[in-house]
Design brief:
345 residues, Endo-n-acetylneuraminidase fold, 3-stranded mixed β-sheet, 11 helices, 20% strand, globular, binds 2-acetamido-2-deoxy-beta-D-glucopyranose, secreted, Wnt_CS, glycoprotein, Wnt_C, cytokine activity
């Protein structure tokens, strides 16, 4: 049996290939359930057994992340789509490219965000509002109040769970770990502080403030920006262990000299994503709709990789010039419109 949208089962994780059956198997117990998630590492299985509620959030987070990734990349050659016939995460991104960096980052951010959100809703045992947000500064007229989103909980769980897959200790797993962390950072960085005024007739002599999560779209936008600025890294030896360092030290951008935790990092240049290549998990752009007049990534010239495009003309009928008659009817004419659509060859 195959459950839920194929999207999830294919694109990133076999981890979740059983996930959408969750509700139907919830009765069979956490232990058996957790065994059903193909591709879970031992540590992930243990975390799952201890905390099955969080697994809902992990799956939800993956779904949110995929949706956002597809939105952010809908006009690009690589559109964050599932790859036919590929099941495992590692296979979908055999190249340590920028796109892989984004995918890991946004997945990690999605899990962090969703777990934090579910925690705020009281749906996760052992998790409550962020109790470190108390006190404040009366002299500056504000104090913490209400229920602040427990981002630390989300970050810690996501760190343990998402990072648990990276056991190889090679350059690629260092890259993945760095991008996982950048994803969690993206959530932390975008937390919003909201305040409410108190005091005589709204004089605002005292404000109470609390922290909330932004909509995931904002985190998607932020990570897309980090994607544009992604840093090319290489593994280096530091004492007895490997770590990542910038491949090319930029000399003229002083502040960019160092690798930051919030950076997305990649090891290899991206392929051009033009041609179908199941080995590399690449769809190719044949059949993609393009924009004839755009010079951007969605323009036929770039999207179709110079292969040209086919034009499909159709006539669309729709209601137009509608008039309202007193009282109460509307009459419309039927207009026909010629619509041209272009598809990559
Ligand atoms: C919740 O916390 C208690 C005490 O720290 C612990 O024994 C229990 O296993 C935790 N439950 C979950 C679901 O993590
Ligand atoms: C991405 O592009 C492929 C073809 O290259 C297409 O089959 C798929 O539907 C697209 N995905 C999305 C989410 O637009
Ligand atoms: C195509 O690109 C042009 C120029 O960027 C833009 O004005 C237009 O809205 C685009 N059309 C569609 C259907 O996206």
């Amino acid at each position: 049996m195959r459950c839920g949208p194929g999207l999830l089962s294919v694109i990133w994780l076999i981890v979740f290939s059983g996930f959408w059956c969750f509700s139907s198997v919830v009765a069979i117990g956490a232990h058996t359930l957790c065994k059903r998630f193909l591709g879970l590492t031992r540590k992930q299985q243990q975390m799952c057994a201890r905390n099955p509620e969080v697994m809902f959030a992990v799956g939800g987070g993956a779904q949110v992340a995929i949706k956002e990734c597809q939105e952010q990349f809908k006009n690009q050659r690589w559109n964050c789509s599932e790859t036919p016939g590929k099941k495992a995460f590692g296979y979908v991104f055999p190249i340590g490219s920028r796109e892989a960096a984004f995918a890991y980052g946004i997945w990690s951010a999605g899990v962090t965000h969703t777990i934090t959100q579910e925690c705020s809703k009281g749906k996760i045992p052992n998790c409550s509002c962020d109790t470190t947000k108390k006190g404040g500064s009366e002299s500056q007229g504000w104090r913490w109040g209400g229920c602040s989103a427990n981002v630390d909980f989300g970050v810690n769980f996501a760190k343990k769970f998402v990072d648990a897959r990276e056991v190889e200790g090679d350059a690629r797993s260092l890259m993945n770990l760095h991008n996982n962390r950048a994803g969690r950072k993206a959530v932390e960085t975008n937390v919003i502080t909201t305040c409410k005024c108190h005091g005589v007739s709204g004089s605002c002599t005292l404000r109470t403030c609390w922290q909330t999560l932004p909509p995931f779209r904002e985190i998607g936008n932020y990570l897309k920006f980090r994607f544009e600025e992604a840093r090319h890294v290489k593994p280096v030896r530091a004492k007895n262990r490997k770590k990542l360092a910038l491949k090319i030290k930029s000399v003229n951008h002083l502040k960019k000299k160092k690798l930051k935790p919030s950076d997305l990092v990649y090891l290899s240049d991206s392929p051009n994503y033009c041609d179908y290549n199941p080995e590399l998990g690449i769809h190719g752009t044949v059949g993609r709709q393009c924009n004839k007049t755009s010079n951007g990534a969605d323009g036929c010239r770039i999207l179709c990789c110079g292969r040209g495009y086919n034009t499909v003309v159709s006539v669309v009928k729709r209601q137009c010039e509608c008039k309202f008659h007193w009282c109460c009817s509307v009459t419309c004419k039927v207009c026909t419109e010629r619509v041209e659509e272009h598809y990559c060859k």
